[in-house]
Design a protein that fits this description.
Largest sheet: none
Oligomer: single chain
Number of helices: 12
Distance between the termini: 57 Å
Number of strands: 0
Order of helices and strands: HHHHHHHHHHHH
Helix content: over 70%
């Protein structure tokens, strides 16, 4: 019944999906798909190694609030799954097209769409949660640790995974369901993130004005400029990751929108696959951003690499794990969750 009520654009998308595993358009671009497979193999390796290293390093960063650390671990986990699952499936899909194995292509494409939708949805929702987390850290102040707990964050993360997986699995029943899910979730996430960061920057500007006023009146300030500076660095790091995600996802959204209104050709399918590969690139870029923008993660990664180069790596990893459990945060961290 749903298929009989499709609009012209939706019918075009459905036709496009069917043609992705069809000999009707595959002629002349086999070599391009082989090159695309080679590049995706490279991205798969870098995403898997980079995010594994980040997950190990995050265990050593004890100065992050547990809820914030959980969100970044969730984001690194989705990127790791992209490297271990989605990109290998993309390679199989590309090679099946290049070798014209259409039955394998159709099965692989269904698996690729389900896993891709799930992981991309979780990544987008997690980045939105990080922006809200940063806003709450500023607005709640000292109450942040009591209200934003690790247990509540776990519940939110589990809801993200279940909601994304269910919407993606519906692709097997009606491929348009994930499409409508994306049309609802993507704008909601973008609006929430933009509103959160806008509110953050307005409040930071207000705090800066208050600090200057206290200094001019030579009165003891109630706002700690050092904590504000640490918080500003934390927001900047999260914003860099958010902007990179948007930059990698935007071409895919644009190309997908054009598919609705243009005639499908072999080159349009190839451009669509290139835009999809750019989405996968985000999972390889995130570990670099973590090391570049977050000094504590960078230091933990260096320590992890040094330990990996030494023979008793497993023993030292266990020792560092127990030290993290028993240790406490030292002063000077750039990831303090207290804005005041």
């Amino acid at each position: 019944m749903a298929l009989t009520n499709l609009t012209a654009g939706e019918k075009q998308i459905e036709t496009f999906r069917q043609l992705r595993c069809s000999a009707a358009w595959a002629g002349g671009i086999h070599e391009h798909f082989k090159y695309l497979s080679a590049f995706n193999i490279f991205l798969s390796i870098t995403a898997a190694l980079g995010n594994t290293l980040i997950l190990v390093a995050l265990r050593k960063v004890s100065c992050l609030h547990p809820s914030s650390k959980l969100l970044f671990r969730c984001l690194a986990t989705t990127d790791l799954c992209v490297g271990l699952i989605t990109e290998p499936l993309s390679v199989i899909y590309s090679m099946s097209v290049a070798q014209e194995k259409w039955k394998l292509c159709r099965y692989t494409l269904s698996s690729l769409v389900i896993t891709g939708y799930t992981l991309c949805s979780v990544s987008l929702l997690t980045m939105t949660a990080i922006s809200v987390d940063r806003l709450l850290a500023l607005l709640l102040g000292l109450r942040y640790r009591q209200i934003v707990t690790e247990r509540r964050t776990y519940v939110i993360v589990v809801i993200f995974w279940i909601m994304s997986a269910v919407a993606s699995i519906f692709y097997l029943l009606n491929p348009l369901i994930p499409t409508w899910y994306g049309r609802l979730v993507i704008p909601l996430c973008l609006v929430t993130s933009i509103a959160s960061y806008a509110k953050i920057f307005l409040n930071l500007r207000h705090h800066q004005t208050q600090v200057q006023s206290h200094f001019q009146q030579e009165q003891p300030g109630q706002i700690n400029p050092l904590n504000i500076e640490r918080y500003r660095k934390a927001v900047s790091s999260a914003l860099w990751v958010q902007c990179t995600l948007v930059a990698c996802y935007s071409p895919f959204s644009i190309v997908r929108a054009l598919v609705r209104y243009r005639k499908t050709t072999s080159w349009s399918v190839l451009i669509f696959e290139l835009a999809t590969t750019l989405v996968y690139l985000n999972s390889s870029l995130n570990p670099i951003l973590y090391c570049w923008k977050i000094s504590e993660v960078k230091q933990a990664v260096k320590e992890t690499i040094r330990e990996a180069e030494s023979p008793p790596f497993v023993s030292s990893l266990l020792i560092s794990h127990f030290r993290v459990k028993l240790g406490a945060c030292g002063p000077g961290t750039g990831w303090s969750n207290t804005a005041h």
